[in-house]
Amino acid sequence: MELFLPSILVIIFAALVVMLIIPNFSPLIIVILSVVLLTASSYHHFNFFWHEYRDSTWQANLKIFAPGIIITAVFVYIFIAGSTFFTSGTLPSMPTLDLPSASTATNSITSALNSSMAAVSNATSTVSNTLGNSLGLSSANQSRRNNGSARSNNSKGPTTSTLAVL
């Protein structure tokens, strides 16, 4: 009974710390805390059980068999892995997949994109015309300004695509 109650109290305290305090820590603090606790508990464990580890000699006689066990395990692995190259057998064939062509699968997406880009293009041209009219620029003035620009090439003015609007 003397070991039971302190153990229960430690477990309850640890549960409260884990549920209430630890979630508020950052991941870096949790990693540092876990490294410190692991180091401290390992040090305490080896100090406490040093005599038991020193007096435990039953496995000392097995050390002479370790190289043979490792070499045997490597040869067994090589034999099993190499035998898979020479086994005869047939692989199951893949079932045929009846999928629609890519053009039919994307037609609805393409039409939706085209209609939305056309709506955006119409809206921007409407806004441009409205702003041009409110600033006193008529469509004839805008076309004369675009055509009479100081460009050396024969471009008719700026062009906009529906992708450039987005």
Task: Describe the 3D structure.
The longest helix has 28 residues, at 107-134. It contains eight helices and no strands. By secondary structure, it is mostly helical.
Please outline the helices and strands.
Elements: H1 4-21, H2 27-48, H3 50-55, H4 66-86, H5 102-105, H6 107-134, H7 139-147, H8 162-165
The number of helices is 8
C-alpha end-to-end distance: 76 Å
Query: How confident overall, as mean pLDDT?
Result: 78
Write down the oligomeric state.
single chain
Features of the shown structure:
166 residues; mainly alpha
Summarize the structure.
This protein has 166 residues and is mainly α. 67% of the residues lie in helices and 0% in strands. The mean pLDDT is 78.
